[in-house]
Give the backbone structure.
Amino acid sequence: MSASLIRRGLDFLNEDIKSAQKAKKKKEHAKTPTSAEAKALVSTNRQGVSRQVKRLQGRLGAPKSKATVKDKRVKSALDEIKKKKAQSKMAANLKYFTSKLFQKATDSDTIKIQKQHIGRLSRDHSVPVAKKPKEAKSVFTEEEFERFQEEYFGKTVEQKRK
């Protein structure tokens, strides 16, 4: 036998194997029939039609998964905990806030935010600091007052009390 005859035979055999595999896959993944198609398959007896339609629709379709324990990979509990554990994002946050992309808020914005978040409870309100009244400063000096008293009253009022 020549090599070309063997190749031809293998090619024919290969095509037959591929077509058989495709047909097998089509059977496995057969489309579930619609309710109209399923009703055509159901007997003409009127009792239990909807049940028969559901049964027919449930039979076909993708096969149930046959996953077993031996197919599963054993996972380490420590690895799972490490994955689920919250990682600190402080370094990334600090880098962002110290970068030039981050713009500092203006004073008016911060005051608005603080006013928005003041609670309704009395303990959340800060006690306003009472401002001390400033001593009223006179425009005139003591010497000018004394001269005015001498001119108006004739003598100073303080001397009279003594």
